Each structure stands twice: as structure tokens, then as C-alpha cells.
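Re: your question about SdpI family protein

S., sorry for the slow reply, the queue was backed up all week. Below is exactly what I fed in.
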Amino acid sequence: MVKSNRLAIVLTVFAYVISLAAIPYLPDQVAIHWNAAGEADGFSNKWVGAFLPPLLMTGLLIFMSALPKFDPKKANYSRFQKSYRIVNAALACFFLLLHIVTLAYNLGFPVDVGLLVPIGVGALLIVLGNYMPKIKPNYFIGIRTPWTLESEAVWNKTHRLGGKVFIAMGMLSMLTAFWRGEMQFVLLIVIIIFGNLYIIVQSFLYEQQEQRKRS
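Result:
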């Protein structure tokens, strides 16, 4: 676990370090949630606000480390170990970004949440898209439809397409950063929903193609 998740561990430890450094300077109540218009609408005690994100990162790290042990297709993880490690680190980077943005906002820095969050989401999607074609069949990570889980050929085709779609979704998500107001959130959700629906439909069509080859 330690070797395969080294970067994610370092990022998680760093999250705790910056929380400890920020605690003396945080107000008693801190913002932890923003609405679609980018306005803070959820608050908590500063200790919860400072340490809940690192705790969530710790939980994610443990979860990602444990998944291969419980997967019936656990043998396949050795075939995409590097990609799995990068996905793990990318998720840790994303949550660390959110944590830094939250702390900076509550420390009084002029942080534009409506700008940084869509860019972070877009960057995460682009990283996932680049490594998605390298993910091999498993029950926990990747595009898991009834058809990808039944056929490795369908899995591979779906993930090659999914990689391109995720990169496109990431780029479009970044563009929403420059659209202000509630429409920004709507556009972001629409991009993600329609992108995933397209992948699912194509996965079904790939299965139909494979059936015709077998018949």
C-alpha cells in the first residue's frame, strides 16, 4: 500500500499540515459549502472545517487501497497498477485543491470559488480520461456497464472511447469557469450527464457489434 500510494499519502499528510498551520488564524465559524451562484451557504466549527477534508482524503486513501483485495478480478490490477496509482493521486490532488481553496477563502484571501472549482473538476476529468484506456476489467474502477463487465473486448472499446469523452468533458468543464451565476452549475452538470450517457449508449452498441461477430 505505502509504495503504490506514496504520492496520495504525501498529499494527504500535507492536507493535515496546512490544516494545523491554518487553525490559529481561522474564525470560529468557517464556510464549507457554496451554492450554484458561488455564495457561501454552509458553515461549521473551524475544527470540523479544517480537518474534515483531510479525514475524507484519508478515508479515500484507505478505500482505494482496499478495493483490489475485494475485487473478484483482483489479478487484473497488476496489469494497470501505474494507472491505478495515478488515478488515486489525481483524486487526492483534487480534494487537496478543494481543501486549500476552502482554507484560503476562510482566511480572507480573495479566492474565486466559482472559477477554481470548475477548473479543478475539468483537470481531474482530463487526467482520468488520459489513463482510462489503460484500465483493465475490474468491478470497482472504470466504466462498469453490464456489457463491459461481460466482455473484455467491449470493456476495451468503451474505455478507449471513454478516455476521449472524459478529456472533452474536462475541457468543456473548464470553460464553464468563465460563465457566472447558477447557469455555470447547470452547464457543468449537463456536460457530465450527457457525456456519461453517450458512453453508456456506445457501450451497448459495442456489445451489439460483438454479438453480431459471434453469430
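The first helix runs from residue 6 to 22. The helical segments are 6-22, 46-70, 81-106, 113-131, 146-150, 152-175, 182-214.

Happy to talk it through on Thursday.
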